[in-house]
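User: Can you predict the 3D structure of LAMI_0H09978g1_1? Sequence below.
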Amino acid sequence: MTFQPVFQIRKELNFASLEDESNLTQSFVEEFQSHNADTTVVDGFSNDVILVENEKYNVKKLPANMDFLPQEKNLNALIDTESGKALVADSDELYVWTFDAGYKHPNINKISLHSEHELLQSPPEVVFTWPAAADDEIDSKVPGICVVNKVTGVVKLFEEVDTINSVSSPVFRDKAHELDLKLKSKEHVISVVNCEPAGIVIATSTGRLLLIAIRDYAGQPMLKLKAQLVKSHMTLFSTSNEFKQVVSMKPGVIVGKGERILSTITRGGHFLIWNLSAVAQSYKRLEINIYEQILESLQDLYPTAHGSLQVLDSHPLPADKQAYSVLSSIRNGDEGNLYILSTIVVDEKTNSFAIFSTYRLNTIYYPIKSAEYPRLVIPAALDSKIDKFVTIFVIFENAVVLTQVSAKLDHTYPLRRKWEDIISFRKNTKIIGYGCDSEAIYLFNKKVGILRVSATKESTAPEDFRGSFVKSHLEQAIYFSNVASTPIEFNIPMEITLDREEIECGLMACAKEILLTKSEYIPPKMSSVLHQVRLRVDLFRTLLEFTKVNFLNKVRPTILLELVEYFEILNCVSTTLSYAGSSSELASLWQETLKGNEIDEETFVVHGLEGFRQVFESYLENIASTLSATSDIDSWNTGIDFLVASVYESVLNDGEQEYRYQGLQLDPAEQQSKLAWFAEGRIAELSNDLFLGYSDVLEKTENLASHALKLLSLAKALYYISNQRIAWFKDALTRTETQEYKELLTLYRKNTTVWNEILCKANQNLECLQIADFYRDLRSIVQILNNIHDEVSAEAFIPYFNKYGYDFARELFSSYVASGNLQDLYNKFPQFHPLLVKFFDENPQYSDVAWIGTVFDKKYSKASSLLLDAVERNAKQEHQLNRCQVQASIAKLCVLAANRNVEQGVLVKIQGVLDTADGLSDLKDKLRSGASLNARYHSDEEIKTLFSCLSGRVAREFQVSMHEIIEIYTLMNQKDGFFYALKLLLLNSEMFDLESYRFLNALLWRRCLLFEGPMKLTDFRNSALYFTLSRAFNELLFKANSDLPAWDMLVDLSSTSPDYFKARYADLVQTPLALADCAADEVNQIRSLGEDLVTDLKTVIATANETAGYPYVINYETNKIENIRVN
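Assistant: Sure. Here are the predicted structure tokens for LAMI_0H09978g1_1:
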């Protein structure tokens, strides 16, 4: 007799729990359009929430809410798809409801398991039983339940679970059918399976397998131990052997009235196929052990298999009644477990088997945490129709692995594995029960409820499952991770090894799909273009966050940089549209830009952002052009606000700072093969123009300080973009050698000076210093500190000395030298004097300042050397005569002040410099007073060119040597020039090499003799020769062994060597050989005077010596000074 409640709700009218919510029929696109942070995706015509879907599988959360379950207790769960019932058991009660009715708050049948004074140690094992055969169609669909106390072995059978409730459960508990299995000591039930019509089968910890009949021959409920199929493996003296425990019991097909196939397997691989019968004797159809052969198939590749292999589960395959899939595991060192799927084909006739294929799961390495998991489930085994591919599910406590294999067992089978994937759950989502139908598996978690996981029967995923694996998980994370309270863990398990190329391809594919709206999950149209692009910005953020967690050190930096660039473009587009929507001025310029580029806004923003930089640059050009024509502060504020928001905040702050450096932890030195998009083209130039224009307008109309934050943001942006461009050039040696790079550095130095000046005017001194410090812009740090010189003491410089050392000192000292601030240079930082010494040692160009410090340090010899270097350098510049004279004089004093023997060579050199300077000064005065080229040379163009060149240098005080001064003296129309030339030559003879000295000596006396023209020395007392000799004798210029003018010297053609003239005059005239011809002509003119000149020369020399009081003893045979008379 069947008990029924007095009142029973009509099932077709049971809508009380159905939620009336308008969003239940929202599609995925519609939900994204709502753009809520707490995103949910609801299946079209049910309350199911789609948690994940892709081309391979989807996961739905069934609507039933689990608030009624006790949260703190240990629970078991069971899902029966035949009856549509779900059951949860704790140690006190059972909770049963219809899980497929679509209600968020279903009717719950709560069944008490025992009276109040009783207590169960753990939840029982429970299975649903088939409904009793009856004429009532409704009753025939109501299942019963069989409850097995795992510890005591007491079995209870309840009929028609729907009629039981909290009120009637004590009555039904008393009327339940009961059987005591009389378990042995330390024996307990480990699993129960429904094998109706044969009965239920119970496995115990001692290896026993018990068949329990639950109906009599008339179909009435009862409980009876029908058969002990397998005896206990424990004896009086043995202990429990886990390898002999049954780990899997899978019912097979019904083969006759009251008969059904059951396959079982132990952890040690003992595999049995049973023919169970409720009315006849049950018997074994097959008994084999597969352990050794599985071990043999593995240990070549996995040496750890030996000693760690254990069989976990098995399941019949749908295509072949003799084929089974077996799940086993081996240890993988200390990292977890490897899981193996083996396909075996059995032969009941010969009681044998063969391993058809072996396949390792590639996506999971979890250690086994529970004896109940993992579980192997093949839903297709319940379907009479055989598809081309079969999906195998492996259920773990916190994950499900899916793999799709060929249903056809032939020689190509190992090559037909389509794909493998994993669905991971969050740590607090533990699977405590499951069930399946022919299309899906159902997983139960006490917080989330029931999840339905179904696979596409014939996935379009590529054969290389790894290639689609990365992209699949990326898409899941991007488009589904914001589903409210999702239990799914989207991050890829760390143990999975993926090829870099596969990861990069997946990342770039997803990134481009978001950038260009190519993903099927992104709606191409929404309420506005801005709304749609904001959605893509959020999706890209999710992509970057997923990359940060999963792929940070697994892909090349260039790929990460490209991802950041795509995000920055999207974010900048979002800001551009937002400002265009809030400002009529910007909106007009934006539309003008689009029109000028022949672009439709919606098409461009949705599908064409690869060309955004050019459009954005054009937009900035329009803004800059418009603002440059006005001084309206409101217009400028609008434009600058946009520039700050779009470039500084959207690109640099949100993109570069948040993701490039903080999120993805990229080194600032990492560069792409091309310039960053914001550093390319004219964006930086236009931003700089707007920055300078804005500061000019503010200075004229308002106080700069009132808009300091905007100026500071723009300066930061300009600094960053400029440094990115410089870093990109430095990344390749060939780039640093280009003219473009040199111009970039020059422009950068120029711009930073201006930026800092503006910021300092806006009272942003400290912030300005921080920026310069961040970019190691030591030149700017010095500039800023010097600009606020009166506000800071020497202590303000100390941190930078300590941080940057000599590099900072070099910049600071250079600035002091350039500005002539010698007081601070030598006195402000005495503690860093060694750095100053090093600075001058490494920078000889500052010798005209460096000598001061060496004098302070009493290093006089070094001071003289520095001064001479300064003189040589300054002599190469125009109008430095006085400076050179002073420096040479001080150098001479420094040599004399050195407390050691005077270095004669240094003194000679210094005296030569002084004499040269004196000669240059005298020549300058003479030329200014009217001295000019001797008239006898007016017809000689080369001489005129030479004199013009040298006199021009004299006037400019530019690069005139002593040789050239002597040359000019001998060409002038003033006869005292020969005396000054002779004086320079004789006093500085040691400065000339022998050839040069002889050349100049002969040149001087020839031109002196011919000053008045080639004429006899009849009235020699008025001649230049006599004048020069007389003064030279009076001033005792000659030394012993000095040569006086003689015939041989004057007519010696060796002093007119063309080679000498080419070497000496090539830089002064175009045809130096013409000068050699002039010299040769002078020799010929002297020869024309005849040998009487020999006697005349002696007469002039003797007369001049006499006039001077005979200061010299002269050898008139050779015209040479023999000695100097001592007065």
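Residues 844-930 form one domain. The radius of gyration is 52 Å.
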